[in-house]
Each structure stands twice: as structure tokens, then as C-alpha cells.
Amino acid sequence: MDILCERCKVGIEENRFNTSRRCTYCKGQLLNAHCVNCHQNSENTNVFDEITPLYHYDGLIKTMIHQYKFLKDIALAQVFSYYLTIPFSDYDVIIPIPSVPSNDVERTFNPVATILEMKGLQYSTCLKMYDRPKQYQLSLNQRKSASNPMYFKDEINLENKTILLIDDIYTTGSTAHHAGKLLKSKKIRKLNMLTFAR
């Protein structure tokens, strides 16, 4: 069953992620063969075994994410779940990046968890996030200097597990790496990151 018109399908395909001229680690844009993002956030490197973005955060994808997250159009979860492909098959646990609780209350849903539920994927909500300012309101330096807002909801044994961490948008990578560092403290075996848009 088609859930989008041909024009929207084309718009989504136009934003499928292209790894050419991208950092091999964070998939950020390269400037003179150097990754500006990794250079500015050197403490974030080597947390993940692999970071995989599905789409560029541009065009129709950017519009759809804005409408979904900030205009609270939960119907778009069906579209995102349709286009969400999991490139890894050897994971033990899927963990969505948590949202600030007050944002979920205001929005009435958790963006990442809702997509996973619609996709029919099992996931763990072991990670939670303290209240903090919205990331788009912060400068790069403020994001870098912020303390880790993540914590474990309950005691969980992840030792020797392969974890797939999923988020909707990866920009500077601060949020993802905060979560990754916390997960690494559990002596996990492997940590991959999947983001819908980069």
C-alpha cells in the first residue's frame, strides 16, 4: 500500500544519505580532507563502532522531521517507520535516544520510540534524560561543555551485548555520544549508532 504520493517519494529518495566526501567515523562533511565535526569534538571519536545515517537532514526530510517533532504530527510516524531500515542484524538490544520528559509530555509522544513501535521493533527504555534546554537553542560550545544529561532508569546488565542506539537527528553528535559513553560503562561488546537524518 502506498502511503506517499510520487512527488514525496522522489523527495525522500533525493535525500538518501550519500557517504562520498564524508567522514568515515561521524559521516560529517569534510573540509580539505578533514572532518570539522570530529576536530571540534575530538572527545566524541571512537565511541561507536559504526554510525549509519539513512538520510541527509535537508529538503523534504527536514520538513517532515520538523512537522513530526515540533508540530506534533504523529501520523508521520507511519511514514518514518516505513522508511526506517535497520542495516545491522547482529544486535542484542535496540535502545532509542531518550527525550527530555517535559518535551514528550508537551508533544504527547516520544519521537523515536513511536517510530520503533510502529515498525514492530522490540527496544529497551533503559536510558532516560534529565530536563535540559532544547539543543537547537544552544551554541556549539554550549553543547560541548554540557554535562551528560543521560542516566540509567534501572539497573540493567548489558555486559558483552551488541547495542544499536537509534536517534532521529544527528547534528553535532553530543547527545548520541553522551548516551554512547554511558552505555560503554556497562562493558558492552559493540555499539552501533543509527540515525534517520544527518
TrEMBL record:
Membrane-traversing stretches: none
Domain of life of the source: Bacteria
Family annotation (Pfam families): Pribosyltran
CDD domains to which the protein is assigned, alphabetical: PRTases_typeI
InterPro entries linked to this entry: ComF/GntX_DNA_util-trans (IPR051910), PRTase-like (IPR029057), PRTase_dom (IPR000836)
Domain Phosphoribosyltransferase: from-to ranges: 133-193
Family: Belongs to the ComF/GntX family.
Name of the molecule in the record: ComF family protein
Source organism of the structure: Staphylococcus canis
